[in-house]
């Protein structure tokens, strides 16, 4: 299985989870269908014309019905965002395989999961809503009024490659919504939600730990053997700390899985491209979600909006993940701060894992870009946020409670999660700062539509700035990259084969390839275009030495091989045939059975022709001189008169007729064989 | 027959100046490039003229690999690359790359600035040398060129220490560098997968020692330090700045904390803080426990251990001082030793191995009077204790590694000849593999026997595997038949039929026909039936068929019966077979000549 991402955009259908009691949220009116037949006022709340479920947010999982998860042997993880659904896949499903990930992916992935669990568990909801999912409700009734489109978020894609004995097929499923279940009677946007029954509440820390215990750490360019049949190798993908693309190959076939890659110089090690060359199939996913935004430009806009707000005496809220782009934002601010006169403005990073994330970022020098790597030789920490912390410019807290509440000064800049604005400390700051137009919220994470994220906070006075920073490959970079590595076939999500629906005229925002890419969508089953013809086998040296090659044509030799095959763990070895152990002769057997030839030694195939003149000459040499040659339609018949035997010579056949004279027959046979090649 | 050659230029039946040449599959690799602490003359460095007499190092060597930052493994590197001249790649892990130049600079300073030697490498040379270094990550397979690949494994010993697997085609060598098979307070244990190298080149510092449990040694160490402090004595612990020092610091730090002790602990060189910083940045190379807790509490931030100043040595009262270098051969540790040696209340604890010729080695051998420069003699009254904390594998550990890697041959370096001899016997007995221990300049040649990789056509393999069944009978092996096609360096094994097709050849049919006359007073049909039952009883395990068209078939051999016109009892049996059934056909023709048994 390739990756195991969680679609958290489903959280947008839910009401935010406040850390402290929010009178505004608790006063929202409940929803009752227009005709009054359905009353869900306890579970559904209306805010600014939209309806939200008032319960702990639930997440949309990778497809789990299509195949028996206990048959998955291996899961390859490409980056920490793409492992968030791991506990749903590895726990309570019979899964007994191994998960492969790099150390930074594993460590930071663990932090992000820990953070998610903490966000959910520290504000338990008194009751959980389930009625809104009731099938009865979805069958009848009228439709609601308001309507929004939830963008198909998610780079997160889970693919399964079956390795039964070889790679045979490829099942693809991504969390892109394809079959839309219509909740006919629920109000929008809920009525457009997909597969709500499969949505699940957040896992527990215990499940996280159990899932992570199945992870095996790997390093870049490490060749990992799977069952002797295939080899997988992670390669740097340049997107985040420890992010990887994967090569899955046998001796003859090569599949590359390119997911979440970046060619920009940010903090991670640059993307390794040359090893991806000569792939039979390249599976491409995790392209930028905002193909029209240039990350550098967005970074500039981020800084200037931030500075403007602070100068005007307002606060800046940056909803973000606790690892990733935040390191680049902090580095950018480190350089920008003094020139923009922000030296005295406090910067806060609030997350249950803020400290761990900042600390961990400093110990993965091997996984960083060259100039960060060389810093540790001095020895200095690779990221400048160490200095920001040391000089008290950046402070980090596990939550708004405790120390933070006493040290908190305004105006300030707060980095905190979760970027969906549905849970985490960010909810508190939205409630706190939303009413003032002095404050600004700057969206940098591309995973959520900012309008949808803001919906339950409307009406809102605070300024909103949207500078999504998505460093992953855009279509221009992809086509250049594909030209460079030249895969025979490209497999990608259906979405990449047409322009985005909102910009249908932009033919440059899609993949155009020759041959056209093979597109997949959720739950579709794709056969990969392989023709497997060969497998690697080893001849033991003793066997190799015993072979007698003969030249058939210039430069081409053949040798017949008779050997014993030994297959173990998908490794095949040919050994010499053991000498038969002489059977102790029992008297009775000896008479009848001793000569019965072994069933299992067929002769080689023959090829070539027997030339008449040369054959006659060699007959002559062997003392057979009286030969009458008779020409026939297809060749000749040789009559050996003294011996009373016939030899029929044709282009592709020789027939020896010889009665009662075994020595003669074998002599003739050997003469004929001399002229033929054995295969 | 391909072979692998191993020649130690240093560390052959000796500890110090590790430098081993390996020739494998046409590639030449230098493993480590160290200096010898016991010498101050030419013998300090490996003898590179072994190579240079035939040309430049760069031409000869495909790469140089450094296992860890100890000077006896990397001390000759700038000399080799900058003064002898080598421009190829030098591989080492990130921590080694970070720490190695600092130790080299230290070494240079002591040699040039303090001892006033000339003709030594300069600071600039160290920098230039380090530019040739390519960093190596654990378990990453690095392709040095198209054929030569190397892979590093965790070795424990010191921060960043690695073992390397060197592979060309199907031939391979593992070099352990220095390693430790038991985790200590700051590092994990060495680990390698079952890579079955042709040769495992292992250090053998503690070839004959089997050390008691780490816990006991630690308790012992703490007890001795504590007793000395209690009676008002001073404890000197000569260490190298990086490695054992950190482990012992962690040990003392926790002990001081627990016992609430007040006596000061000092660390002698300015390197400490920097050294601890390296440990913090390379925390992923330390052991599990430290890695797990580093966010809450970094083990390398010490509360009780402070920087040492030269003047403190004369302070009254108890104290513990860690001082470099570890073998008391020069520098601060030797200075402090001289000051404290005369007082029997004091103690020196040697936590590691000492090379012959060093002061450390002498006092460990019980020498009570030492000759110092200027004909002065130093009387050694203080207590001398040896505690093996140096993180080398002991005999048990070496055997454990052999079990892990399953090498075909074993080669010992980095140890004393006598002890090696003992271990060699033990290895040969226990594992029945050859074990070598070449001296410096002596070449060991090991013949390898690589199997030949071939591409087998999938249908042939699948058919064969299906016929073999899921659990083939080892007593009755199935013989597989195929044709090996050799063309443009490719080897393909296919079925004979496919071989004909691929080579564009047509099959040549070779058939034999043979008439056998025999007396059988029955009708033709009866004779045929008798023939059928006779063959059926003789040829068990063969397919014998009686066909309605009046023939009997044995496998693909056709038999017909007719009687000659004159004598109806004289039957003619016509046998016809193809060359593929030659043996069976030949057997049948002679069998039938004997006639049919009348009992049928």
TrEMBL record, chain A:
Principal localisation: cytoplasm
- Give me the Gene Ontology terms describing cellular component: cytosol; INTAC complex; integrator complex
Q: Which GO terms describe its biological process?
A: negative regulation of transmembrane receptor protein serine/threonine kinase signaling pathway; regulation of cellular response to growth factor stimulus; RNA polymerase II transcription initiation surveillance; snRNA 3'-end processing
**What are the entry keywords?**
Cytoplasm, Membrane, Nucleus, Transmembrane, Transmembrane helix
The subcellular location is: Cytoplasm; Nucleus
Membrane-spanning ranges:
147-168
Q: Does the keyword Transmembrane helix apply?
A: yes
Instruction: Using the record's annotation, list all stretches that form the Beta-Casp domain.
Output: 326-454
Family that this chain belongs to: Belongs to the metallo-beta-lactamase superfamily. RNA-metabolizing metallo-beta-lactamase-like family. INTS9 subfamily.
Q: What is this protein called?
A: Integrator complex subunit 9
The scientific name of the source species is: Astyanax mexicanus
Q: What is the lineage of its organism?
A: Eukaryota, Metazoa, Chordata, Craniata, Vertebrata
From TrEMBL, chain B:
Read off the Gene3D superfamilies from this record: 3.40.50.10890, Ribonuclease Z/Hydroxyacylglutathione hydrolase-like
List, separated by semicolons, the cofactors it needs.
Answer: Zn(2+)
Q: Which residues form the Metallo-beta-lactamase domain?
A: 16-210
Q: Name one GO cellular component term.
A: cytoplasm
An example of a Pfam family matching this protein is Lactamase_B_6
According to its UniProt record, where is this protein located?
A: Cytoplasm; Nucleus
Q: Biological process GO annotation list?
A: regulation of RNA splicing; snRNA processing
GO MF assignments: hydrolase activity; metal ion binding; RNA endonuclease activity
UniProt-listed InterPro entries: Beta_Casp (IPR022712), INTS11-like_MBL-fold (IPR041897), IntS11_C (IPR048662), MBL (IPR050698), Metallo-B-lactamas (IPR001279), RibonucZ/Hydroxyglut_hydro (IPR036866), RMMBL (IPR011108)
Q: Which residues form the signal peptide?
A: none
- Which keywords describe this protein according to UniProt? Cytoplasm, Hydrolase, Metal-binding, Nucleus, Zinc
- Domain Beta-Casp span(s) in chain numbering: 245-363
Q: What PANTHER family does the annotation carry?
A: CLEAVAGE AND POLYADENYLATION SPECIFICITY FACTOR FAMILY MEMBER, INTEGRATOR COMPLEX SUBUNIT 11
Family, per the entry? Belongs to the metallo-beta-lactamase superfamily. RNA-metabolizing metallo-beta-lactamase-like family. INTS11 subfamily.
What name appears for this protein in its UniProt entry? Integrator complex subunit 11
Supply the source organism for this entry.
Answer: Astyanax mexicanus (Blind cave fish)
């Amino acid at each position: 299985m390739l990756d195991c991402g969680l679609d958290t955009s489903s959280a947008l259908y839910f009401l935010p989870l406040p850390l402290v009691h929010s009178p505004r949220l608790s006063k929202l009116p409940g929803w009752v269908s227009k005709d009054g037949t359905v009353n869900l006022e306890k579970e559904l709340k209306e805010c600014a014309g939209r309806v939200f479920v008032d319960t702990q947010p639930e997440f949309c999982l990778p497809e789990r019905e299509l195949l028996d998860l206990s048959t998955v042997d291996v899961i390859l993880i490409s980056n920490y965002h793409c492992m968030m659904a791991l506990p749903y896949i590895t726990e309570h499903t019979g899964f007994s395989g191994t998960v492969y990930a790099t150390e930074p992916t594993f460590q930071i992935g663990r932090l992000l999961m820990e953070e998610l669990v903490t966000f959910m568990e520290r504000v338990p909801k008194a009751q959980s809503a389930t009625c809104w999912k009731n099938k009865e409700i979805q069958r009848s009734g009228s439709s609601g009024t308001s309507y929004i489109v939830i963008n198909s978020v998610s780079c997160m894609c889970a693919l399964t490659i079956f390795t039964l004995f070889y790679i045979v097929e490829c099942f693809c499923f991504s969390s892109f919504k394809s079959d839309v279940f219509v909740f006919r009677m629920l109000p929008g946007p809920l009525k457009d939600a997909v597969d709500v029954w499969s949505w699940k509440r957040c896992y527990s820390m215990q499940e996280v730990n159990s899932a992570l215990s199945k992870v095996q750490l790997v390093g870049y360019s490490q060749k990992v053997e799977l069952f002797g049949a295939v080899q997988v190798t992670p390669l740097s993908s340049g997107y985040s700390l420890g992010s990887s693309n994967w090569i899955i190959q046998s001796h003859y076939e090569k599949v590359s899985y390119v997911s979440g890659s970046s060619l920009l110089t940010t903090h991670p090690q640059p993307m390794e491209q040359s090893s991806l060359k000569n792939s039979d199939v390249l599976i491409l996913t995790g392209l930028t979600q905002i193909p029209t935004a240039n990350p550098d430009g967005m970074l500039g806009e981020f800084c200037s909006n931030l500075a403007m707000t602070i100068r005007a005496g307002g606060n800046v809220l940056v909803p973000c993940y606790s690892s990733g782009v935040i390191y680049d934002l902090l580095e950018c601010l480190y350089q920008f701060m003094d020139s923009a006169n922000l030296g005295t403005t406090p910067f806060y990073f609030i997350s249950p894992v803020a400290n761990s994330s900042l600390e961990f970022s400093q110990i993965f020098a091997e996984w960083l870009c060259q100039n960060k790597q060389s810093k540790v030789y001095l020895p200095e920490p690779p990221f400048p946020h160490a200095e920001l912390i040391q000089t008290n410019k950046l402070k980090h807290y596990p939550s708004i409670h405790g120390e933070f509440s006493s040290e908190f000064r305004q105006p300030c800049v707060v980095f905190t999660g979760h970027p969906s604005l549905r849970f985490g400390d960010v909810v508190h700051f939205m409630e706190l700062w939303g009413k003032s137009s002095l404050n600004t919220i700057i969206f940098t994470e591309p995973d959520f539509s900012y309008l949808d994220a803001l919906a339950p906070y409307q009406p809102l006075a605070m300024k909103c700035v949207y500078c999504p920073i998505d460093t992953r490959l855009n279509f221009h970079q992809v086509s250049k990259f594909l030209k460079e590595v030249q895969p025979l076939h490209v497999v990608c999500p259906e979405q990449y084969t047409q322009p985005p629906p909102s910009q249908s005229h932009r033919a440059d925002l899609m993949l155009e390839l020759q041959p056209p890419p093979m597109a997949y969508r959720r739950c579709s089953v794709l056969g990969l275009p392989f023709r497997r013809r060969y497998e690697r086998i080893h001849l033991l040296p003793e066997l190799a030495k015993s072979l007698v090659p003969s030249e058939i044509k210039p430069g081409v030799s053949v040798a017949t091989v008779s050997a014993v095959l030994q297959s173990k763990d998908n490794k095949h070895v040919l050994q010499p045939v053991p000498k038969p152990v002489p059977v102790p002769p029992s008297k009775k057997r000896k008479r009848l059975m001793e000569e019965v030839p072994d069933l299992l030694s067929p002769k080689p195939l023959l090829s070539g022709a027997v030339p008449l003149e040369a054959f006659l000459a060699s007959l002559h040499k062997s003392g057979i001189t009286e030969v009458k040659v008779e020409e026939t339609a297809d060749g000749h018949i040789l009559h050996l008169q003294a011996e009373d035997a016939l030899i029929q010579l044709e282009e592709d056949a020789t027939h020896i007729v010889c009665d009662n004279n075994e020595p003669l027959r074998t002599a003739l046979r050997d003469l004929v064989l001399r002229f033929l090649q054995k295969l | 027959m391909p072979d692998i050659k191993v020649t130690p230029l240093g560390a052959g039946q000796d500890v110090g100046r590790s430098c081993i040449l390996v020739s494998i599959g046409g590639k030449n690799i230098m493993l480590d490039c160290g200096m010898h602490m016991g010498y101050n003359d030419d013998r300090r460095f490996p003898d590179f003229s072994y190579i240079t007499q035939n040309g430049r190092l760069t031409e000869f060597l495909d790469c140089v690999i450094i296992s860890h930052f100890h000077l006896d493994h990397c001390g000759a590197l700038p000399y080799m690359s900058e003064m002898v001249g080598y421009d190829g790649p030098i591989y080492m892990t990130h921590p080694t790359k970070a720490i190695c130049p600092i130790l080299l600079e230290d070494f240079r300073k002591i040699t040039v600035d303090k001892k006033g030697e000339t003709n030594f490498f300069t600071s600039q040379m160290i920098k230039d040398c380090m530019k040739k270094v390519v960093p190596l990550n654990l378990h990453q397979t690095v392709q040095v060129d198209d054929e030569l690949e190397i892979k590093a494994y965790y070795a424990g010993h010191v921060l960043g220490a690695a073992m390397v697997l060197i592979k060309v085609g199907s031939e391979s060598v593992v070099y352990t560098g220095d390693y430790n098979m038991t985790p200590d307070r700051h590092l994990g244990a060495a680990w390698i997968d079952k890579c079955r190298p042709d040769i495992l080149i292992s250090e053998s510092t503690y070839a004959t020692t089997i050390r008691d449990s780490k816990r006991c040694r630690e308790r012992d160490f703490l007890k001795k330090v504590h007793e000395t402090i209690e009676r008002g004595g001073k404890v000197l612990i000569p260490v190298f700045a990086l490695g054992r020092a950190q482990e012992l610091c962690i040990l003392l730090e926790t002990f001081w904390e627990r016992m609430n002790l007040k006596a000061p602990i000092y660390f002698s060189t300015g390197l400490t803080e920097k050294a601890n910083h390296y440990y913090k940045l390379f925390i992923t190379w330390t052991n599990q426990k430290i890695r797990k807790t580093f966010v809450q509490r970094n083990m390398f931030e010490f509360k009780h251990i402070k920087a040492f100043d030269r003047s403190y040595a004369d302070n009254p009262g108890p104290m513990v001082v860690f001082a470099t270098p570890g073998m008391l051969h020069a520098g601060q540790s030797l200075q402090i030793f001289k000051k404290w040696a005369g007082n029997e209340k004091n103690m020196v604890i040697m936590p590691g191995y000492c090379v012959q010729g060093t002061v450390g080695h002498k006092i460990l051998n019980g020498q009570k009077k030492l000759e110092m420069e200027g004909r002065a003699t130093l009387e050694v009254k203080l207590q001398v204790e040896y505690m093996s904390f140096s993180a080398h594998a002991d005999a048990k550990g070496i055997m454990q590694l052999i079990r892990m890697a399953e090498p075909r041959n074993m080669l010992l370096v980095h140890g004393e000849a006598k002890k090696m001899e003992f271990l060699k016997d033990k290895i040969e007995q226990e594992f029945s593999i050859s074990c070598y221990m070449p001296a410096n300049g002596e070449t060991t040649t090991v013949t390898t026997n690589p199997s030949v990789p071939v591409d087998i056509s999938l249908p042939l393999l699948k058919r064969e595997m299906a016929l073999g069944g899921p659990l083939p009978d080892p007593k009755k092996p199935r013989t597989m038949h195929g044709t090996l096609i050799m063309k443009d360096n490719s080897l393909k094994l296919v079925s004979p039929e496919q071989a004909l097709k691929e080579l564009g050849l047509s099959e040549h049919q070779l058939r034999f026909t043979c008439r056998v006359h025999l007396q059988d007073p029955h009708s033709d049909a009866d004779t045929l039936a008798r023939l059928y039952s006779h063959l059926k009883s003789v040829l068990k395990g063969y397919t014998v068929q009686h066909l309605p068209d009046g023939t009997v078939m044995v496998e693909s051999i056709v038999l017909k019966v007719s009687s000659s016109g004159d004598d109806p009892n004289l039957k003619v049996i016509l046998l016809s077979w193809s060359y593929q059934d030659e043996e069976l056909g030949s057997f049948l023709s002679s069998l039938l000549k004997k006639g049919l048994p009348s009992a049928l």
